[in-house]
From TrEMBL:
NCBIfam families: pola (TIGR00593), PRK05755.1 (NF004397)
UniProt feature, compositional bias: Low complexity: 1-15
Start and end residues of each stretch annotated as Disordered: 1-20
InterPro entries in the cross-refs: 3'-5'_exonuclease_dom, 5-3_exonucl_a-hlix_arch_N, 5-3_exonuclease, 5-3_exonuclease_C_sf, DNA-dir_DNA_pol_A_palm_dom, DNA/RNA_pol_sf, DNA_polI_exonuclease, DNA_polI_H3TH
Residues annotated as domain 5'-3' exonuclease: 20-280
Keywords: DNA damage, DNA repair, DNA replication, DNA-binding, DNA-directed DNA polymerase, Exonuclease, Hydrolase, Nuclease, Nucleotidyltransferase, Transferase
Domain annotation 3'-5' exonuclease: ranges: 324-499
Protein name: DNA polymerase I
Keyword Hydrolase assigned: yes
Residue ranges of every copy of the DNA-directed DNA polymerase family A palm domain listed in the record: 666-873
Length: 910
């Protein structure tokens, strides 16, 4: 194998030795390469922050940490402003374009990530990052270290020797070439120390250093080798014949300048030396918080997998857990429970199993006391007496228990014939309420955050987290017992944090009660008409083929309608349509862009292309629902309480909250959800204009309150005031404009956004908003005040006290600050709506039970509840639902509830 082949290998680096290994990273160079390697449109957070450069940079670094296993690490960045090189040559790097807008702020984020990882960051005013890397590399090599330099700047090749290797990117940041002395020699025909001589002659385009005209790399290498370096070439300039020699002599000053500028400094004064760069344990709490913000779940797992064991001084040993298996208890389970978790004592309960709604199962259960005693029970092999004792204890509502994701545990235990009651604290829900903008609330994360006790997953424990510090952590019993112990400890410290953040009342009055409602809704499910769904699937499949054929006919040939490349050729080359947004691979062909293009052109190809895509989505929805039908003929979705930061519930497996309702085809899918055997009808009940009612309440605007209390159509009433016409004179277009603006204001809609939404000029949209605010000044004052208040306190709050913390309100990054302001506008309104529907669910479920009715709740879809009503109970349930939903919150305007019934979900619409 040739040296070049070896150099290009992406396999792990040199075998481990006793030498220390220093990894040095050129921060700006690799961040830019990461930015251009990953499509910016595919990497952004829900707040609108672009993250492709951060993601690519971090992905590269994690890979290097895993493969190279460095003992020492540092990242160097360029600083804004000039360097000594620009002082000597003003045109140095002057050809570089300004950083693209989506790149803005990502270097700062990389700094934050490095800080959270405890990686040393180095910058020096007046010097480039390469000078810092060169200084450290030479010093480290002299002290006996092995050095790896990661940079996209070829000037670093001059550092390469037997102790220093440059990892040079040849494709994005994922493929790095190992530039050893042999690799540099084979690639450039000069030894590394003479690479700057070669570059001085040939020039460096990226640095805006022009080369000698007519002198290419081969000629330059020949001269450098023949005359023993650039100094020799200069000394023998008169001896070099031909046009190339004359060109060299004509540009001699330029060559000397190039060589002076491309020489890396190795004596930059730095606050640290190589020995100070030893890798340190990451700040796991900071990593969790930052990666939650960046929404880097996969990278988080990859990062933690590369890290050395957590340092002893970074953890707390906590309470030593005395774990015993129930079979080893001489007197059985009963006496142990009475001794260690007597009545009134909060017990940690850990359940291992599967939480399938249609039939979960539990295999192992552990109970622990705050005092450090735990018992484990193998539910597949337990004595009948102990099983009966456990069943009574679990079902006792007066025995308070702390569980992580109690709804899942309930499904597991129910599959084993055990009921779980008395949930006094759910660590997953509490973690969510304390930090609603995070993405993960795993027990291991909470343990590190609140107890500073690291939990790890082991093969022996079946993938469950166990305490890393436990000598017996590999046993299943200890794994379950220590998790239960962590739960018991978390209830106190996490509960205190929740209290500080104003979430304890929400946990006990809203989230835990609604959790009990949700688990029953998941267990019951909703009946599916599989024949209807199969017929719909087949019909959508036919429509897909029909619209594809029509699209082909419109352009006279077939094309892959799923290929962005082929669509670009048809739309912009063949049909010469107006260009859409520019992307790395051409011009976007996403749904919004194509819809806008169709509005401009009305071309039949686009008409059928959009219909083709729509029918594919509908077909996929129908197929997904058919696959989700359980043996009992019902679909059991899973509701999540910890996904949306605003408090809204979400639904998965399948998602029943995104069943389309605005199209005729979408409504047909709702026909596939029907009343089950033994029941009379489905009932739907939803709030009318709840977000605008909350806006009226929160703003206290007299005009909006009058609008709701008048009983007239809200949007016509508001439009009549804005346009100064009678309510009966309001045109559909005027009502539509007001409706769009009224709802948009609650989401931080700008004049520009309103203009695009309504298809009007920005000036007209701005005038419309100004007139609106003149008529409804309380709304303007509220919208301005809620952001100002959130900036002062750091959070927004719903009418029931649900907080959302928004640290980006004070960010120096304008994009992040603007997004945080929009969240501050939206969170109190959407969050209050979420709280209200949850209270309605709790009240409705309680009222059905107290009335002794058989009817039951099935689904919650944002502002709508779906119930299955028993025969003969329709009138009573109708009154009950209207009463409970109307009383879910006390607002300054009435909560209007609409109710409908029918055989199917669609028939029950109103």
């Amino acid at each position: 194998m040739s040296p070049a082949s070896t150099a290009a290998s992406t396999a792990p680096g040199p075998e481990s030795t006793d030498r220390s290994r220093l990894l040095l990273v050129d921060g700006h160079s690799m961040a830019f390469r990461a930015y251009y390697a990953l499509p910016v449109e595919n990497f952004s957070t829900t707040t609108g922050q672009h993250t492709n450069a951060v993601y690519g940079f971090l992905s590269m670094l994690i890979k290097l940490l895993d493969e190279e296993r460095p003992t020492h690490l540092a990242v160097a960045f360029d600083m804004a402003g000039g360097t000594f090189r620009t002082e000597q040559y003003a045109e140095y790097k002057a050809n570089r374009d300004a950083a693209p807008a989506p790149f803005a702020g990502q270097i700062d984020l990389i700094h934050e990530v490095m800080s959270a990882m405890n990686v040393t960051i180095l910058e020096r005013e007046g010097f480039e990052a390469d000078d810092i890397l060169a200084t450290l590399a030479v010093s480290a090599a002299r002290s006996g270290m092995e050095v790896l330099v990661i940079s996209g700047d070829r000037d670093t090749f001059q550092l390469v020797d037997d102790d220093v290797t440059v990892l040079y990117p040849i494709r994005g940041v994922s493929t790095l070439t190992r530039m050893t002395p042999a690799a540099v020699l084979e690639k450039y025909a000069v030894v590394p120390s003479r690479y700057p001589d070669l570059a001085a002659l040939v020039g460096e385009t990226s640095d805006n250093l022009p080369g000698v005209p007519g002198v290419g790399p081969k000629t330059a290498a020949k001269w450098v080798n023949l005359y023993d370096g650039l100094d020799g070439v200069i000394a023998n300039a008169d001896q070099i014949a031909g046009k190339a020699g004359q060109s060299f002599r004509d540009h001699l000053d330029q060559v000397i300048r190039n060589r002076r500028l491309n020489e890396l400094l190795i004596d930059v004064e730095l606050p640290v030396g190589p020995a100070d760069l030893e890798r340190r344990p990451v700040d796991r709490e900071a990593v969790h918080q930052l990666f939650d913000t960046l929404e880097f779940d996969v990278l988080r797992e990859r990062l933690f997998a590369t890290l050395p064991e957590i340092a002893e001084d970074a953890v707390s040993p906590g309470v030593q857990v005395d774990v015993v298996a129930v079979g080893d208890l001489p007197d059985g389970l009963g006496p142990w429970l009475e001794t260690h978790v007597p009545a009134g004592t909060l017990a940690g309960v850990d359940v291992t199993g599967t939480a399938a709604q249609g039939g979960g199962d539990a295999w192992t259960l552990a109970v622990a006391s705050v005092g450090g005693h735990a018992v484990t029970i193998d539910l597949t092999d337990v004595a009948q007496t102990d099983e009966q004792t456990l069943a009574g204890w679990l079902a006792d509502a007066d025995r308070p228990k702390v569980v992580h994701d109690a709804k899942a545990a309930w499904h597991m235990l129910r599959g084993r014939g055990l009921e779980l009651a008395g949930i006094g604290f759910d660590t997953a829900l509490a973690g969510y309420l304390a930090h609603p903008d995070q993405r993960r609330y795993a027990l291991a994360d909470l343990s590190v955050r609140y107890l500073r006790r690291e939990l790890v997953e082991t093969e022996e424990s079946g993938g469950q987290a166990v305490l890393a510090l436990d000598e017996n952590a590999g046993t299943a019993d200890t794994a379950a017992g220590t998790r239960a112990q962590v739960l018991a400890e978390l209830a106190d410290v996490l509960g205190a944090d929740l209290e500080r953040r104003g979430g304890r009342r929400l946990l006990h009055d809203v989230e835990l009660p609604v959790q009990r409602v949700l688990r029953e809704m998941e267990r019951v499910g909703i009946c599916a008409d599989t024949d209807n769904l199969e017929e719909l699937r087949s019909g959508f499949d036919d429509a897909v083929e029909r619209h594809a054929a029509a699209a082909y006919e419109a352009i006279g040939h077939e094309v892959n309608l799923s290929s962005p490349k082929q669509l670009q050729e048809v739309l912009f080359d063949e049909l010469d349509m107006p260009k859409t947004k520019k992307t790395k691979t051409g011009y976007t062909t996403d749904a919004d862009a194509l819809a806008e293009l169709y509005a401009k052109t009305s071309h039949p190809f686009l008409e059928h292309l959009l219909a083709h895509r729509d029918q594919i989505r509908l077909r996929q929805t129908a197929e997904g629902l058919l696959k989700s039908v359980s043996p009992d003929g019902r679909i059991h979705t899973t509701f999540h309480q910890t996904i949306a930061a605003t408090g809204r519930l979400s639904s998965t497996d399948p998602n029943l909250q995104n069943i389309p309702v605005r199209t005729a085809d979408g409504l047909r899918i709702r026909e596939g959800f029907v009343v089950g055997e033994g029941y009379g009808a489905l009932m739907t009940a939803d709030y009318s204009q709840i977000e605008m009612r909350i806006m009226a309440h929160l703003s206290g605007d007299a005009g909006l309150i009058d609008a709701f209390q008048s009983g007239e159509d809200l949007h016509s009433y508001v439009a009549s005031s804005v346009f100064e016409v009678g309510t009966d004179e309001v045109t559909p277009a005027q009502r539509s404009k007001i409706k769009a603006m009224s709802y948009g204001l609650a989401y931080g809609l700008s004049a520009f956004g309103l203009s695009r939404q309504l298809g009007i000029e920005v000036a007209e949209a701005r005038t419309l908003m100004d007139v609106y605010f003149e008529r409804f000044g309380g709304v303007r004052e509220y919208l301005t005040g809620v952001v100002a208040h959130a900036r002062r306190t750091g959070y927004t709050e719903t009418i029931m006290g649900r907080r959302r913390y928004l640290p980006d309100l004070t960010s120096d990054n304008r994009q992040r600050r603007d997004m945080a302001e929009r969240m501050a506008l939206n969170a109190p309104i959407q969050g209050s709506a979420a709280d209200i529907i949850k209270m309605a669910m709790i009240g409705t479920d309680r009222a059905l039970t107290e009335a002794g009715l058989t009817s039951r709740l099935l689904l919650q879809v944002h502002d709508e509840l779906v119930l299955e009503v028993a025969q003969g109970e329709e009138q009573q349930v109708d009154e009950l639902v209207r009463r409970e939903m109307g009383a879910a919150a006390e607002l300054s305007v009435p909560l209007d509830v609409s109710v409908g019934t029918g055989r199917s979900w669609r028939d029950a619409a109103h």
